[in-house]
Design a protein that fits this description.
Layout (H helix, E strand, L loop, with lengths): L1 H22 L3 H4 L4 E2 L2 E2 L2 H12 L16 E4 L28 E3 L9 H13 E2 L12 H4 L3 E7 L2 E6 L6 E5 L16 E7 L2 E7 L19 E10 L2 E9 L8 E9 L17 H8 L3 E2 L8
Parallel strand pairs: 5-14
Antiparallel strand pairs: 1-2, 3-6, 3-13, 4-13, 6-7, 7-8, 9-10, 10-11, 11-12, 12-13
Length: 301
């Protein structure tokens, strides 16, 4: 019996360590001195530098004359949004984001949570399991910046994004001017509509169900979420990606994250079809250790 308990404890601890490690960027991935397209990789340096470079870059074009964003793209500095403000998963005593924070607005680098929501973010870490751990769909903008590659393909009237990690999720972004779905239709990844503003692809996503997290670090949202993403080519191998998060139920004001998407130039590279298995024993063991399934925001009464 003692051996069985020891084996159970070790397996559960291993899962927790692996989940934490896999979702957090290494120092080399998000270190402040790393360069991308001749710009600092850290968001607050990359943001103004990359947009300035984009003004003088003439991107390749699709047959219909729009910027050609197609290809395989990676987000090595994003860390799957597991550590958005760069302060880690445990430390609660800080008033600004770290130099590696992905948040460029507000200027302090922190998500402007309502006080109750900031407390709930840490309760999520301590008591709840990232919904993706149980093979539930990852949401937006996590799908754009999760580890490994995503493939962007442009078609007449719509754009698709297919991820390698996160259970091989995909999204369809309609570009034909159709309205959003009715407000009572709620989806895991929301309902996306795109348009071109000059050389920038702008994507507006609404109709979220509020049951997912931004990443594995406990950062969450409600069904009032509206995400505005902006993709702008900086050079042939780099995209400036920005996402503005507007969720008045959870945050005091909109906030914006920025990162680089870098082209995967490996010859002959093919995306793996990553599977997620709901019956995985180590995943089930997390619930036996006292962690709970996440069921959405817990609003104050």
């Amino acid at each position: 019996m003692r051996h069985r308990l020891f084996d159970f404890a070790m397996r559960a601890a291993t899962v927790l360590v692996v989940l934490s490690w896999a979702s957090t960027p290494t120092a080399g991935q998000r270190r402040p001195d790393r360069q991308v397209a001749g710009c600092p990789a850290a968001a607050r340096g990359f943001h103004p530098c990359a947009l300035a470079k984009a003004k003088t870059f003439n991107p390749p074009r699709t047959p219909d004359g729009q910027p050609d964003l197609q290809g395989l793209w990676e987000a090595p500095t994003a860390g799957g949004l597991g550590n958005i403000d760069g302060r880690g998963r445990i430390d609660k005593e800080y008033t600004t984001g770290s130099p590696t924070s992905l948040v460029v607005d507000p200027a302090d680098g922190l998500i402007p949570y309502h006080p109750w929501a900031r407390a709930q973010k840490y309760e999520n870490i301590e008591r709840y399991v990232d919904p993706y751990t149980h093979c539930l769909p990852i949401s937006t903008p996590r799908i754009m910046v999760s580890p490994r590659t995503r493939q962007i393909t442009q078609y007449p009237g719509y754009v698709t994004v297919v991820n390698e990690s996160g259970g091989h999720p995909f999204r369809v972004i309609y570009m034909d001017g159709r309205p959003h779905l009715p407000a009572d239709v709620k989806l895991w990844r929301g309902d996306s509509r795109g348009r071109w503003e000059g050389n920038t692809l702008v994507i507006e996503t609404t109709n979220f169900n509020g049951l997912a997290w931004f990443g594995s670090g406990g950062d969450f949202f409600s069904d009032a979420l509206r995400v505005t993403e902006r993709l702008t080519m900086v050079d042939a191998n780099t995209i400036h990606f920005a996402a503005t998060i507007d969720d008045p139920k959870v945050a005091t004001k909109p906030w914006t994250i920025v990162m680089a998407l870098e082209r995967n130039k490996e010859e002959g590279y093919e995306q793996m079809e990553e599977g997620c298995f709901e019956s995985d024993k180590d995943t089930a063991d997390l619930l036996l250790t006292g962690f709970l399934m996440y069921t959405g925001p817990r609003f104050p009464k």
